[in-house]
Amino acid sequence: MDQTNANQGPDPVDLYVGARIKARRKTINLSQEALGRAVGVTFQQVQKYERGANRVSASTLVRIADALGLSPIDLLPPSARAAGEMIDVHAFQAQPAGAELLQVLSAMSIQQRTLLARFLMAAAPTV
């Protein structure tokens, strides 16, 4: 479904996400057709995403990011990224406590890590 308003045009966030998708796709020499196949949409739909004419759903954003070798947050505007401040994994890993925590996490099962993540999200302060 077209998400543009005839009087207003595409939302600036949709334009930004589309431009990021297009820039990364071109950087890695991936055609719109190949990206569409990887994501499960037509190349015409990829064109609409890149133009900002159609919004990218969260699930599609995750699939696109994966196909482009990125994290979904890499496709979002800086203001959205700041809201969910990501940890610099390399800097975190370089700290003794960070390296130790990563070792413990890697020894846990996926189910244990999922439960821990849910606990931490529930315990985290809200802004």
The number of helical elements comes to 8
Biggest sheet architecture:
none
Unreliable parts:
none
CATH architecture of the largest domain: Orthogonal Bundle
* Number of structurally distinct domains: 2
Describe the overall structure.
It contains 8 helices and no strands. The chain has 127 residues and is mainly alpha-helical. It folds into 2 domains: 12-83, Orthogonal Bundle (434 Repressor (Amino-terminal Domain)); 89-123, no CATH class. The longest helix is centred in the first third of the chain and has 16 residues, at 12-27. The model has no long low-confidence stretch (mean pLDDT 84).
Descriptors:
127 residues; mainly alpha; 434 Repressor (Amino-terminal Domain)
Strand-helix topology:
Elements lengths: L11 H16 L4 H8 L3 H9 L6 H11 L9 H6 L5 H6 L1 H12 L2 H14 L4
Helix pairs in contact: 1-3, 2-3
Write a short abstract of this structure.
The chain has helices at residues 12-27, 32-39, 43-51, 58-68, 78-83, 89-94, 96-107, 110-123.
